Amino acid sequence: xxxxxxxxxxxxxxxxxxxxQAAAHKLFETQPxxxxxxxxxxxxxxxxxxxxxxxxxxxxxxDPAGIVDFLDMINNLKGDSGRGYYMQMVIGTPGQxxxxxxxxxxxxxxxAAAAHPYITHYYNRALSSTYQxxxxxxxxxxxxxxxxxxLGTDRITIPQGPSGTVTINIAAILTSxxxxxxxxxxxxxxxxxxxxxxxxxPSVEPFFNSVVRQTGIPDVFSLQMCxxxxxxxxxADPAGGSLIMGGVEPTLYQGSVWYTPxxxxxxxxxxxxxxxxxxxxxxxxxxxxxxxxxxVDSGTTLLRLPGNVFSAVVEAIMQTSLIEDFSTGFFxxxxxxxxxxxxxxxxxxxxxxxxxxxxxxSQSFRITILPQLYVQPVTSIxxxxxxxxxxxSPSANGLVIGATVMEGFxxxxxxxxxxxxxxxxxxxxxGGVPFAEIAGPFLAEGVASxxxxxxxxxxxxxxxxxxxxxxxxxxxxxxxxxxxxxxxRRHRDGEITDESSLVRHRIK
Length: 508
Ligand SMILES: *[C@@H]1O[C@H](CO)[C@@H](O)[C@H](O)[C@H]1NC(C)=O
Description:
Elements: H1 2-6, H2 14-30, H3 48-56, H4 70-73, E1 77-80, E2 84-91, E3 96-103, E4 109-112, E5 132-141, E6 146-157, E7 166-177, E8 188-191, H5 207-215, E9 220-225, E10 239-245, E11 253-261, E12 272-277, E13 280-281, H6 286-289, E14 294-296, E15 303-306, H7 307-321, H8 328-331, E16 337-340, E17 352-357, E18 363-369, H9 371-374, E19 375-381, E20 385-390, E21 392-395, E22 399-401, H10 403-406, E23 409-414, E24 419-425, E25 429-430, E26 433-434, E27 436-443, H11 459-490, H12 498-507
Parallel strand pairs: 3-8, 4-7, 14-22, 15-21
Antiparallel strand pairs: 1-2, 1-10, 2-3, 2-6, 4-8, 5-6, 6-7, 9-10, 9-23, 11-24, 12-13, 12-17, 16-20, 17-18, 18-27, 19-20, 23-24, 25-26
Bound molecules: 2-acetamido-2-deoxy-beta-D-glucopyranose.
GO molecular function, one term: aspartic-type endopeptidase activity
Main location: membrane
Protein name: Beta-secretase 2-like
């Protein structure tokens, strides 16, 4: 069988191989995983109560007053997994039209407000009569890239979104580093996560909270990203997608929707119970899959896995795929793999399944991605070779269900009911064969009742502990000082002031 499969992988000529590697190098230097999210600096817990109070009132079942027409929103996105999916927005008065990246892994709305070599135009605040500065600075660091700017508010409309004008917080980006990249066609970023991630603090109301509060649409949005199987290097005709604000559009998915609870409202944090490569269970302690968190993030290109999990997946793929002597450079992202045109390599790779906790917590369901989603075409050479990259990478800050996986599904961010839904997307298929599958329910017994506790503490908690320890140290020092000073002074009665003598008498 091994011999049979090997036949499909042609040995490249040395020259082609070199070009292929050069291409791989270029691609991976610029874009392994573009916008993973800012690391939190606050104690997120203390703010949780007020947050859920805000959201609990919102569970409208359907369109309240014709504010939302989902059909208008279909195909309102452009882009691909490598450079992100963006939507057109009109900012200020008179309106300035900009393309804005959709990112479910952060919570600020930020747009370029000054020229930058990699963007074509920017938001000019001086030309907007409705812009109001709040004279506060703001800075956000992503896993890749960072920016600094000024906070303010302005009015916006979304041509293919809910009708009406909304006043929202805007961060005007004045300087940035590694944030705007060559070849992107967007000028700003729209963070759809919860207020706890907003910078400089959660009082800066995120865009979608403002939209829900001001228009009355249900507190739900959903995303269909349609770049699967499309080469990420073709700029001419970017793939599309849909961001439905206010609900769920049935024509964007097939089969049923499975929901997983949002564990904590900061990122869209979910609980992963199990991973399978082909039919092989990785059999790791389920806490490893959620270390230190598992999130759903449209602004991250790849499926990112904690180090141990990544190694286990690569190991299992190498066993299952029957591709011997397959270059490890492919899996660590430094090399592309190329096949003769027309020889689809996808048949050589296994499916990968992620089991998520169902809303009935004693059950789970699985989302399955076919190799068409994680072995991604990026470029071709001489018109005879097609080259692919590996759509999975290791992560030091948790599991990220990024665009690689999301492109197979219609993903519903049901904030009103604190859950994220998955259904097979209508746009992820080729010749009637879908690139993704979904199945359930499975019994979650045998899996720990909680796969998230006991993982390393999150950064904000560490800060609280650090400050608490510092406080205790300071107290101990003060007590020690008092104990040291007081006995000495007792021998020098003449020098004591009235104040300290009070203390002295009490010690007696
Ligand atoms: C949850 O799942 C368990 C196991 O399948 C089942 O016995 C139970 O009835 C379910 N609970 C609800 C509320 O559906």
